[in-house]
Amino acid sequence: MSDLPLMQENKGNIVLFYPNIPEDVIPEVVETLHGRWIGQGPRVDQFEREFAAKFTPGWKTVAVNAGTSALHLSYLAAGIRPGDEVITPVFTCTATNIPLLHCGAKPVFADIDPETMNISAKHVRELISEKTRAIVCVDYGGCLCPMEELRSIADEYHIPVIEDAAQSLGGFYKGRPVGTLADYTAFSFQAIKHITTADGGMISLQGTETERKLKRLRWFGIDRYAKQNGIWKNDITEVGFKYQMTDVAAAMGLASLKTFDSKMELRQKLLAIYKDSLEKVPGIQVVGADFIGHGHAAWLCTVLVENREGLQNKLREHGVESNQVHFRNDRYTIFGGRVKNCPNMDAVEEKYLILPLHTHLTTGDVYRICNIIQQGW
Ligand SMILES: Cc1ncc(COP(=O)(O)O)c(C=O)c1O
Predict the structure, then answer these.
(1) Which of 136, 137, 188 to mutate to test the pocket of ligand 1 (most atoms within 8 A of CB)?
(2) Is pLDDT above 70 for 1?
(3) Average pLDDT for the chain
């Protein structure tokens, strides 16, 4: 595949991603900047409460500075330690797996399910060993993982499931919302996610003790609430991080919650147009198509396509940007080299392509893209 430069926004071009910044974000941020708290303050607490009320009722939430930090803290909360093996998808953003290396754990890569490009539960079961400490799954593109199957394997071996829901905010699995399905769920509010705080993340979990621990770990290991109330013993007993969310970021998150539903509706509509328009086009298949409209969080439109480079070039000629976005993680030296037991990944490696899907697109834009594809490449 040719390495194409970023497409410019001008001349009616359709770019792959665009941040979702609702109008309400600007006054909320300005008000925050005029106040006493711009770092971690009351807006972070409020964002945690409102996020939980909207997406993960009854679950604890801990806001952090990135989805990657949410994953790192989730891995620590799950008890992942040096030398542990963790079964994790071979195909994902590297941010899923890099924090495992920070924990000193060994990522054991599981193959994909060819229909969704999510982790294959069947392969997870085959990979379980005495050293397996946890299972990590990623809702690729917004399509929910086979949580029931993963849960039953995890329960059988008494290990936790950590769900990377960076791409699936607002998704559902068999009627249950993402964030209430795994032991720990990590969300991302990075620039191009459903909701953005420029950078930010959230963990949803159960248990007040774990919640308190994660809130300490995001702030050096200090209990900030005890400190602010003057009851802190002035000792640090856990090595923490500087992973807290700021009030400026939380202001963006709070304002974005208000328009989440309408933005999600648009994303769903756009993805459904791709699905319906490309269904009968030879040589192309929309990934996870059966889940679209059934709990899919509509973050990416991924297609499997014959002659990927041909389609990418044709789209480019018509001012439409497309890309691979993520690559199989075993191509990166840090993860120890290419694995030989992921045939489904091998089969689609040269075929997958991501098409534009964001809240600056209109239905007309997506029909235009589908029309170009329908003409062949
Ligand atoms: C699947 C996945 N996991 C983790 C992350 C990391 O999130 P962040 O960029 O907020 O650290 C991202 C996106 O950036 C992602 O797409």
Answers:
(1) 188
(2) no
(3) 96
For residue range 34-92, list pLDDT tens digits in order. 999 999 999 999 999 999 999 999 999 999 999 999 999 999 999 999 999 999 999 99
Q: pTM of the full predicted structure? A: 0.97
Q: What CA–CA distance (Å, rounded) separates 198 from 249?
A: 7
Domain ranges of the chain: 25-254, 260-374
Which of the listed CATH numbers 2.60.40.10, 3.40.50.300, 3.40.50.450, 3.40.640.10 matches domain 25-254? 3.40.640.10
Pairing verdict, β 352-355 and 184-188: unpaired
pLDDT at residue 8 in the model: 74
Q: What is the pLDDT of residue 3?
A: 61
Q: What is the CATH number of domain 260-374?
A: 3.90.1150.10
Contact 300, 125 (CB under 8 A): no
CA 3 / ligand 1 centre spacing (Å): 22
Q: Are 27 and 164 in contact (CB under 8 A)?
A: no
Contact (Cβ atoms closer than 8 angstroms) between residue 51 and residue 189: no
The per-residue pLDDT for 114 is 96
- Cα of 348 vs centre of ligand 1, distance in Å, is 22
Q: Which residue's alpha carbon is nearest to atom 13 within ligand 1?
A: 166
Residues with CB under 6 A from ligand 1: 66-68, 92-93, 95-96, 138, 164, 166-167, 188, 190, 199, 201
Query: Which residue, 243, 184, 249, 236, is CA-closest to 218?
Result: 243
CB 86 within 8 A of CB 104: no
Q: Which atom of ligand 1 is nearest to the CA of 92?
A: 1
Distance 273 CA to ligand 1 centre (A): 26
* Mean pLDDT within 258-279: 98
Give 90 Cα–ligand 1 centroid separation in angstroms.
Answer: 15
Which atom of ligand 1 is the closest one to the Cα of 140?
1
